[in-house]
Amino acid sequence: MKAAERRKEIVNIIMSEKQAVSGGKLSEMLGVSRQIIVGDISALKADGYDILSTHNGYIMQKSPLKERVFKVYHTTEQTEDELSLIVDLGGTVANVYVWHKVYGKMTATLNISSRHHIVQFLEGVRTGKSSELMNITGGYHYHTVRADSEEVLDTIEKALKEQNYIVPEI
């Protein structure tokens, strides 16, 4: 994994956790030394990420990333295409959630930011380890997508609309 990819993954992990994430946990998750993590955190801070270093680990105070929620609909066969479209245009699929009539809002963290992550996700679904959350709502679901700018999010939204994945507002 290249430094830029690793740093993007660090941001995704820290933003998804409700508690501080230790350097040791990050190094274990990403297969690098704690010193590499410390260097990556310094580089991220220099890039404008407001990361707080505590005795319990790292906390994201405020991210310079922009975020948008898309209500989408597609079949299981179209999942790879939908996710690829988002990451190829520079987005990260932070999560998926559905509104269940009994359970309410059900959310799953994804942090899919590369084709490799898509392959891992789809392999988990195909091997029967789990099924897609959208299946309990007939294909309707929401994605929180993060990107470097509103322009990237606009491009992603336009591409999702062109593929008829966006659910039209009524």
Give the secondary structure arrangement, pairings included.
Layout: H1 3-16, H2 23-30, H3 34-46, E1 50-54, E2 57-62, E3 66-73, H4 79-88, E4 92-100, E5 104-112, H5 115-126, E6 140-147, H6 150-162
Helix pairs in contact: 1-3, 2-3, 4-5
Task: Describe the model.
A hairpin with a 2-residue loop joins strand 1 (50-54) and strand 2 (57-62). Helix content is 41%, strand content 26%. The chain has six helices and six strands; from the N terminus they run αααβββαββαβα. The radius of gyration is 17 Å and the shape is globular. It has 170 residues and is of the alpha+beta class. Helix 2 crosses helix 3 and helix 4 runs antiparallel to helix 5 (115-126). The strands form two sheets. It has a four-stranded antiparallel beta sheet with strand order 3-6-4-5, with helices on both faces. A two-stranded antiparallel ribbon has the order 1-2.
